[in-house]
Amino acid sequence: MDSELKKGGDMHRGCQSLYSKNGEYVFEGEWNPRVLLDILKVGGDDWGGKRVLDIGANTGGLTLEIARLGAKVVAAEPDPYKNNMGLTKNLLLDTAKDEGLDISIVKNDLFSCHELGEFDIILCFGLAYHFRYFQYLLDYISSLKPAILYISCQTHPSDDLALYNRAHPGILKEGHLGDETVLTGWHPTRPLFEKMLQWSGGGEIISLTDKPYNFPNKMKGATNSAYYRVEYSSSTNPELSKGVFYPR
User: Fold this and answer.
1) DSSP class of residue 40?
2) Count of domains for the chain
3) CB 26 within 8 A of CB 5
4) Among 21, 32, 199, 236, which has the minimal tally of Cβ within 10 Å of its Cβ?
5) 75: enclosing H helix or E strand
6) Angle between helix 134-143 and helix 190-199 axes, rounded to 10 deg
7) Residue 26: other Cβ atoms inside 10 A
8) What pLDDT sits at residue 102?
9) DSSP assignment of 82-143, as one string?
């Protein structure tokens, strides 16, 4: 293993940690995938044998933990600006091979997911708030026809049906964004985000945290402030299943 990937070196910011089966670091990142796994377990699903698409897989820490539950996981990291998966791809695949896990990694192209077939469960953690048009993303995920979606977002504490620029005063700590930082995202309120999930065809929508966190407050080790489990059915709006989407 490359020494720079071991614990004790510089922590990799914006990355998920990877753990050995025994709980030791094999790659140290900013986020703890086992906290995210605990959030997923609140949903009560049996992951054994399920085909899972992890959109926004980052370095694959959560992908690895889900595969250890018996799922067949396809990891996709669509960030065009930094390829976090590139830091750990070989390590992730080697670990999966050693443990007999079913993990595959696809190219960094979010909108090619229709080519991958059908999935029982789709994950979309730490990605949604980077989209200006949330409904576009949610409709696209709905068109992939998952039975269940687990999704997270950074949310604004207002109760209005509103969307706030991430650079809006009070959302991030002063100085967090440099003067030359490009726009990094948008924060919906929880009521708006839940409405959008419904508009995309989501049926039962369950919050997975025991209190209504809003950004910048969030569970320690978690990336976002709002986590949901959403069920879809065959009655989802057929207009959303055509699979033809164009940039806006």
Assistant:
1) H
2) 1
3) yes
4) 21
5) strand 72-76
6) 40
7) 20
8) 98
9) --THHHHHHHHHHHHHHHT-EEEE--S-GGGGGGG---SEEEE-S-GGG-S-HHHHHHHHHH
**Residue 41, both tokens:** 């377990």
Does residue 165 belong to any structural domain of this protein?
yes
The answer to whether residue 14 sits within a structural domain is no
Residues of the domain holding 56: 32-241
Residue 10, domain member (yes or no): no
Locate tokens 């960094």: which residue?
108
Does the reported pTM lie above 0.85? yes
pLDDT along the chain (248 residues), means of 10: 43 90 91 93 96 94 97 86 80 96 85 85 92 88 93 91 80 61 77 94 91 78 90 63 46
Instruction: Tell me the CATH number at 41.
Output: 3.40.50.150
Size of the chain, expressed as the number of residues it contains: 248
Output the CA–CA distances (angstroms, integers) from residue 45 to 136, 150, 157, 183, 229, in the order listed.
27, 11, 29, 36, 10
Residue 228 within any structural domain of the chain: yes
